[in-house]
Amino acid sequence: MNFKKFLSLFLVLGTIIFFTSCSSVFKKDVDMALDSNASNSVIFVSLNYPPYYYLDSQKQVKGRCVAIVKRVCERLNLKPVFKLLPWKECLERGEKGMVDGVLCLSKTRMREYYYHYPRANLDFAEYTIFQNSINTGSITSLSDLKGKKVGVIDGIAYPEDFVNYEDCEKVLLSSPTEAMRMLATGKIDCTIEILDVGSKILEYLRESDPNLDIDDVKPTSLVFRIDPIYIGIPKEAINSEELFRKIDRELLRMQHSGEIFRILSEFEEEG
Known about the structure:
disordered N terminus; D-Maltodextrin-Binding Protein, domain 2; two-stranded antiparallel sheet
């Protein structure tokens, strides 16, 4: 065998060995990826939104919506991981498909572009205006907000009639808790919030910060529409179509059987 033939044979054998080893490495990478997904873990996020979604005294995420989603996951053999994040970050992660679901999500035309919405909602939300009665007069209609500073949370989809009202100054804030603190200290005149959420946050502040004067912070009689709230499944997330179909079917079954109502009732009894 001359030198050229020997060199050619050597190169061919080397190429075969190289691609065989690459194939083996690639297979291992694929197997590792499959193993990492075998745990059936799903990541859900929302903001601190008691009584729907919040961190309890044991540093565990719980709430009305959490209880329902946990039951869904039990039925589907999924392992839920609940994380607490600022609302704007929840939405950003959802839109990019970085999480498997966003809880306490109201339905808007814009959000339907990014999320699958199940046919059955998790709960309902009733928006109202909270005021510091020392600093503001009677508030019974939108026109009573004229000239006032009203705290709003970045990323929240508020009732359309409030969104379109332009005669008040809307102060952008990061969380409902911040809004209630600013309301108590007179830095804003009012804030728009879900009645249950605002009431729970005031209870928390009364216990955790006794120096904060919140006795004059109360809901008004101005009530907006009652909206359903959902779990949104991000369309950009891996396997979102399959996860959505499963969650959608199970939630609808639970709604028709009355199980969602029973879970909410049990949660209320537990406090």
